[in-house]
Amino acid sequence: MKMHILSGGRLRMKKHIYLPEAAREETIDLPVSCFLLRHPQANVLFDTGCHPSVAEDAEGRWGNLTRAMTPIMGKADNVIAELAAIGLAPSDIDVVVNSHLHCDHCGGNGFFTESTIFVHAEEMKTARDPEMEGNGYFQTDWNHDMLIEEISSEVDMFDDGRIVLLPLPGHTPGLTTVLASLPESGTYLLASDAVPLKQNLDREIIPKNTWNKDLLTDSLAEIRRIEQSGAEVICGHDRAQWEARRSSGTTLK
Known about the structure:
By secondary structure, this protein is an alpha/beta fold. It has helices at about 55-60, 80-85, 105, 120-130, 140, 200, 215-230, 240-245, and strands at about 1-15, 25-40, 40-45, 70, 95, 115-120, 150, 155, 165, 175-180, 185-190, 230-235, 250. About 45% of the residues are buried.
């Protein structure tokens, strides 16, 4: 099995949302991380990032949310272009796993019309709530005709321990991570927004954009346990980690 590290866009936000000691006006640039897992039985894409259109018309897609979360990505800085660079089209993807249904994590779902979408049932319930529309969730991102497989607990996708879906809620009600075991490189926890920045894990800092702080505290404790067992935690939006990974090669075996 191989894992490709893909870009799903890039955002600019207020830094104090993640690190409270930052000045109110200070901003932070955040990569949006997506991952392609090439399992012998299927191509599995973890998150689809931002919709490509936000590179040119963010407000048209996200409305007032762009005041808090501003795309700073180029036209080719999206998961569709990233897949094309390794010779794949959306039709080559068998499964899409959405960590959660915020617009920077499922914005590209609509391109994957032949894929089965795996997402937590609590995340679907939240996204369907009319009061959540525009509050990080947009039906245009997730409400499509593809087959949706709702999960509610840990799932070993191919019963071989290589790709295990681990619900770790807190950032949102149904946030789900992936524990990926590669034959040569080892084990990686793809943490998404359970750990947006490595400092959030290392310093036990709960971001301000957290749905349930108690649940996230419990999830971070589990993530630290997984890390101590030997897995490397790959964060959802950590720029330093992202640049180090991209500079050393985007494919792990």
